[in-house]
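testing teh design pipeline on a random one, pls ignore if ur not involved
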């Protein structure tokens, strides 16, 4: 499994990628907002499957020792789709393996940064992170 390769920084916007999500138990969504929609439930089953052991093997936290690139985690404290516990787990795994991520935690944001001032702050930090890790764009 490759995470953008060792030469590139990884910005991990915690999304419902094929991870071992504690909100999915034996194909049942037990936390978050996905279970509020039949479409969401069916999408999770189709995209992720029902096998918890298989899901666990795809969790990025289980591959933190292989991630050599710099990582930025952007987390909404009110995110029901991808609860902050996922980012906490990823951050702990990265720290354990000596790759402490840049951590942007927005307590009052959800599954997206909607407040205009907060979004500007976040995007400014993302650009700074990219500039620091891959260099500023040359005009």
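output:
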């Amino acid at each position: 499994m490759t995470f953008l390769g060792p030469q590139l920084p990884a910005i991990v916007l915690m999304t419902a990628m094929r991870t071992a999500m504690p909100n999915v138990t034996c194909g049942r969504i037990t936390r978050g907002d996905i279970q509020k929609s039949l479409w969401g439930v069916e999408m999770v089953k189709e995209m992720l499957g029902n096998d918890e052991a298989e899901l666990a093997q795809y969790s990025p936290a289980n591959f933190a020792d292989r991630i050599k690139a710099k990582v930025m985690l952007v987390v909404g404290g009110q995110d029901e789709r991808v609860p902050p516990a996922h980012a906490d787990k990823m951050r702990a795994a990265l720290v354990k393996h000596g790759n402490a991520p840049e951590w942007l935690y927005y307590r009052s944001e959800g599954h997206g940064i909607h407040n205009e001032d907060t979004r500007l702050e976040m995007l400014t930090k993302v650009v700074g992170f990219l500039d620091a890790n891959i260099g500023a764009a040359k005009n």
